[in-house]
Amino acid sequence: MTSFSDDRARLHMAVHTDGDRTTLTLTGELDLFSGPPLTQLLDTAMDGSVKYLDVQMAQVGFVDVDGVRLLARAYHLGAGRGVKLTLHDPQPDIVWLLHITGTALLLGDSTAPADTATLYPVSPPPPVRAGEPAKSTPSVPRAGTISDRDRHADERDLRADQREARADDRDRLAQERDRLVDERQRRVSDHQRWEDIREDVADARERNLERRENER
Amino acid sequence: MSSPFVVVDSPRIVCVCEPGQAVTQVVVCGRWDGGLRQEVSRVLRACVAQAPRLLVVDLTRLQDPPGESVSTWLTMVRYAMQADQQVMVALGAAPPAVRRRLSTGDGDPAVIMADTVDAALALVPSLNFGIRQHHLALPGQPAASRLARAMVGDACLAFDVAHQVYPARLIVSELVTNAVRHTGTDLDVWVSVRGAALHLAVQDRSPDLPQLLDAGHRHPAELPESGMGLRMVTAAATRWGALPCRHGKVVWATLATRAGTAS
Hints:
The structure holds 2 protein chains of 2 kinds. By secondary structure, chain A is of the alpha/beta class. Chain A is built from 6 helices and 5 strands. Chain A starts with a strand and ends with a helix. In chain B, the strands form 3 sheets. A 6-stranded mixed sheet of chain B has the order 1-12-13-11-10-9, with helices on both faces. Chain B has a 5-stranded mixed sheet with strand order 2-3-5-7-8. In chain B, strands 4-6 form a two-stranded parallel ribbon. Chain B is about 35% helix and about 25% strand. The interface between A and B is large, with 54 and 50 residues.
């Protein structure tokens, strides 16, 4: 077991290797500034000596968009080197962030069903109950459960990944279209409200003018 | 889902936001015409969306001898009063014809008029009740986003909006990271409750709008790497936008204070 830490950035990393599987357990917060040591570690861990890199996320309380970007890059880097990177047990808010940024494929097939778009619509993240900012129960990293998986299964996985990636891309574009449509509608409705008031104001003015004419 | 309300200064409209005081000042210059009317309408809508307590419209340099702009100011006052979060509007130093036509009443809502902009701004202390606000000044350094997140988390608990802790931290973290990365200037972070909205604001000392604001619009096809931050803020916030301020700019976002309500 090798441990790394960067107290300033509050991200702790622990590496454990077993056969063709490396487990990386993260604790703390992952953001733009705590990320670089992790990037380096992921690069080293995916040197081709293992096939699977499991990142245990249960103890990560916060990931920002740069953290997601970093993990997504590592995923693609790994894919190029024949290493499958999977995030395990991230907190619900982080799962939401992965979906919203179109990177749900990092969750692997175990936690990401095919119809992610319907399960995680573009809406605010799941509410957190008061006084429960972070989960305190660490879950046991899965290790070695699939160590005997054969080459065919790997190829199947790869094809499934590619399909999922394409589906993800489609989802992302659909979400982007929806976003632009919503944005236009919101603008139109604000504008409409303004125009309605403007008409009322003009009507009132006209009525007043008429009234004064009649009084004269 | 939300849409960004971004205001960029133009030769005829200058906007100054004071996030700490929840006051925004808009200076309208030049001859009143159809083009200026449209521009004013758009900027004022964006200013109201940001939910200040007071919106001061400075008309010192407006040229409108016949007072044709009156209907726009009346519209603005009603629009601001009917907004999700009521905004008070004051007109400063309006041209004589405008003042005359506004003061005839006509059963319209009372328009606050002040002789000078300073007099209008003097209204602020009297509005200072019941505002709950946390402020944190930060250097533009890497640790800023983590400190800002901690402050936002505390503020959410203090304001009884614990269910918004995660999106609030995510949004502020993103805005601070962007400011540090693109400007590196000193920062101010404000978290406040304004009516039914949790209001988040990050001010830096650079007038340049963050790339965050543009990426998704110009290259929607170039995802995933570009525009991720924009997509996240857009998805998480009720509304968000950017306004110029005296030194630099402020990027703001709002979240509903009550669970399950989208304001």
